[in-house]
Amino acid sequence: MFLDTLLPLVLPGMLGLALAAGAQAAEAVPGPYRGVVARVIDGDTLAVRVTIWLDIDLDVLVRVRGIDAPEIRGRCDLEKSRAVEAKASLSRIVGEGEVMLREIKGDKFFGRVIADVITAKGQDVGRAMLAGGHARPYAGGARGGWCEIGRNAIGVESQVAQRRIGDDWRSDP
Length: 173
Known about the structure:
5-stranded mixed beta barrel; CATH 2.40.50.90; 4 helices; single chain
């Protein structure tokens, strides 16, 4: 009786931990995993409810691969205002709609993953943020500051950035 009550509560958590542990491995989980954006955290991070199996969902923070956006709690007023613009841009791109996650890897912060994020219309979110000038390319390692960069420099960096685009999500099983 106790197991009948406890198992439905514990099993989703165990599956979530297994997914997170798998994502922490050196290799990426290729996906695709479909999810719904619950909220936009900042210009490069989303809270997504991902369906991992049948009717089992996992709430996870997803950092958009390949970009770095200004921080909401930035070091200067310019960075903070850019962060508000970046968050608004990401909100317009993804809305509260369905997204697809691919090439999911663990992040250095527990409970967050890094992934390619594709909108329901097939738009690569990272590429859209770069093209809009609201983020700059990021491949890991030390991130540069935002306070020293002139307002137009982000757009120039974004225009020269090259990123791979995934296939249209609707063609996947």
